[in-house]
Structures
1.
Amino acid sequence: MNLFDKLRGTDDADLVNVKTMFGRTKVYDVEADDGRVLRVMDVNGTWQSAAYADYGPTDLAFPYHRTFDQAFRAPVDITRALMLGGGALAYPKHLVTHLADVEVDVVEIDPQVISLAKEWFFFDRLTDQEQARIHITCGDAVAFLEDAVAQGRQYDLIANDLFAAKKPTAALMSEAGLALVKRALATDGIYVANVVSARTGWHAKPLRTVEAALGRVFSQVKTISLGADEPRLPDNNVVFATSGSFSLAEALDSSDR
């Protein structure tokens, strides 16, 4: 059982209950196993984002977000990052508070989600300078990437959090879509995505499909699976890809996860 399944809110405890672009969206607080309070953004019954209410905006609640940080193990100076899918802005807030020089572009298609993130997920606890380094665009991720490539903008890190439940965003899993991602990366840039999938058996098809698509575009692909004890059950898998000059496998294998 993963974090998404452990805790749920009740309708009478909702701080927000509205219809957004992708369905019924609720914001509510729950008590985690360790007694801390989690504020959750729930879309159609799936936790899209969460933040610890009692600790500040940048203490990452989701293990897959913490695993994104393995990209820092690679010999890449991350000064410009792109987050595809904003949610409650959990990872962008984390980046600007932990990397003093990073500028983070965020693309979120739903303006209501952006408003909820700023109003309910402690964005105001960032300093003015930290807030200024998060640049939010309300729009389509593919269109944003096309514009970035046309203008010659490149990123050291592109993180894809556009996956909805168990279905990755098809436009960015095609060879053409991933080639666009690659063109938006700096020479040693890293692409990272979360894929909800089993690791073995029939339910592993989403992960196998993503890895195969990435392998056709990037020279190196590495997956860190978070459901080690139950490989036949869907869980989070963080997939890294690069065509950089360093060894991605060596960089990730050096982690102490």
2.
Amino acid sequence: MSTILAGTLLLTATGLFSQVVGFLYRMALSRLIGAETMGLYQLVMPVYSMLMSVTAVGLTVAVSTLSARHHALGDSGTVKSVLRRALGCFFLLAVPLSAAVILLSDPISVYLLGDARTQLGVMLLAPCVLLTGVENLHKHCFYGIGRVRPPAAVETAEQLIRTGTVLGLLLVLLPRSAEETVGLIVLGMVVCEVFSACALTLLFRRHWRRFPPGAPGAEIGGRRLMAIAVPVGATSLLGTLLGSANAVLIPAKLVEGGMTLSQAMAEFGVLSGMTLPLLGLPTGFIGALCLVMVPDLSRRTAQGDRRAAAGFLDRVLSATSLLMAPAMALLTVIGPPLGRTLFKDARVGELILPLAIGTLLGCWQSVLSGALNGLGLQSKAARNAILSDVVQLAFTFFAVSRFGLAGFAAGYAASGLVGAGLNLASILRAASLRPKWFSWFVRPLLAAVLMGLWCNLLHRVMLDSRCGQGWSALVCVLLGLVLYAAALMAQGVTFSREKAQQKEL
């Protein structure tokens, strides 16, 4: 089994574990703090995403890409120059920006986020961003040189530490207000980032000693680093601004449609803190695939192997559809009762069908965006992501006040369709890849729809027969997988061939 497949499998296992732990964490957190406070916490997170976009996101892609190129060309000594320069650029941006956020936390919480109770959480984001940036730069340097085990191990421990720290702080300190609760949650994030940043720094220095010394003149200039980082970071920043505006607009537009502020914040908390994380459970594979795919495509491009890159993209698209389509179909059926049972809120799972479609489209968009970054086409990935976010924002602005969260769900699906379609068109042109519509999309979707319809019927029959929800969900999953495999085989898929193709990765 090749390194790329082994790395993907390891990161997939780590990602799925993190998704499960994160989901259980959100479930316990929502029960502990309630939907309204969960909405306040979700309102703070776009500020965190915006700070990361300005300071670290572009640099992490640059570190992953450049370290992969130099490692592929046998110049591993230059990798330390890449990381050192990236850390310097990050601190140059992050330290003054974090100080500004602390000083301006009051107007940010009142005028930008629309709720003064978010101020303490906003202030505590500053140290969290500094630590997360150090962690991510070291992590992506590991990914670039093909070492996925150290960051995978640290990420697993980080999830456990975060869950234990946040829940422990809330149970021990018993905050008296929603603002204190949000602050303690962010403080728990800071604690787990201290561990991650320190652990990855020490692990990389230990690995660094085995690097051969760089050749004379191998020092990476800031201009070369920024040539990659600036377009990616600018895209991420603009996308985060659009996403932040979307997050702030949702409660405001719900209030405009007739809800009270408390009701609107609770609805927003259920959507962003419960329903969407439930649909995000199976997507750990996508994040793992993108983390390994970007440096791998960068290596193939640096070596001039465009044909191998095109074949790799073909298999990546097939694997994404084959795994994500049945997952979304199953969650459409068993997700609402499962979510209501776990989160103890009757609103969990509302509008799950359009949200599941949007999540599947978002998976395709993420994979194709990662492929564009790996091929060195960051500007095209940037343009497509921005257009996708604009579509979502337009639906939120014009439809939510009139149709409620159904307007957001429609925009969520439309946004994913625009982003995935534009990315696919860019990939087909860049990689000279012939589209295989049936094997990439039609065959997995037909099998998933058939499976979903049968599972929906079976689920309803079992519930009407007074079977427990747990047993009904388990039977639907097991039978659904069998039906899905049978539907694929009926369309000509032979799993021995698929397995052989995956090994070629």
